[in-house]
């Protein structure tokens, strides 16, 4: 039976695509790259930011760091609020807390931004622990974020079997596997078709409502 539920933020708790895509576009413009297809920039939702600039625009080393800095220039004041919780998320969180689960946020977004967003949408009170990456890039893989959740929540090795990572991208599933915990992949976020199956998610749902049923009625009976 699961007791500790770890939630990704972008694409799992909130639809953050508008802010992320506009901030990526802003950063690219500052780097002299004109890119108008905001929809195509949704590939930036989920993975570590530096990695995405490297993978999709071949920005390496100092160029990648500069692009990240430009991104955060806009995100820290405007972009983080171009965002909204998915319908049904607050109801889900309330029901999970009432059922006695311990909840954590495990996001690759810098922790300072995660905390701001959670407070802005009044979701922070549902969580026992909120963990993100650090601004220096020392904790930007999902596995590293999960390890920090484990440390802060003082989860022993014997209790790891009671942990469950919930996220919308393969990075969430792969990070969970690296740390030896189970995962739920959600398709209401930004995963491509077949992505979560290929990554090896233990469970898959398509809606917030299906997630609630799975957590409260099926796998924790």
Separation, N- and C-terminal Cα atoms: 8 Å
Rg result = 17 Å
Number of strands: 8
Secondary structure: helix percent: 40-55%
The poorly predicted ranges are none
Major sheet: size, sense and barrel closure? 6 strands, parallel
What would you call the shape? Answer: globular
Q: Quickly count the helices.
A: 9
Class per helix and strand makeup: alpha/beta
Secondary-structure element series:
EEHHHEHEHEHEHEHEH
Taking strands numbered 1, 2, ... along the chain, how are they ordered across the largest sheet? 5-4-1-6-7-8
Q: Give the mean pLDDT.
A: 94
Instruction: Report the portion of residues in β strands.
Output: 15-25%
Entry keywords:
221 residues, 43% helix
Describe this structure in words.
Helix content is 43%, strand content 16%. It is α/β, with parallel strands linked by helices. Strand 7, helix 8 and strand 8 form a beta-alpha-beta unit.
Q: Outline of this structure?
A:
The chain is α/β, with parallel strands linked by helices. The protein has helices at residues 17-30, 49-57, 61-75, 89-98, 111-120, 142-153, 170-178, 195-199, 208-218; strands at residues 4-7, 14-15, 84-85, 102-110, 129-133, 163-167, 182-186, 203-205.
Can you lay out the helices and strands and say which pair or pack?
Blueprint (H helix, E strand, L loop, with lengths): L3 E4 L6 E2 L1 H14 L18 H9 L3 H15 L8 E2 L3 H10 L3 E9 H10 L8 E5 L8 H12 L9 E5 L2 H9 L3 E5 L8 H5 L3 E3 L2 H11 L3
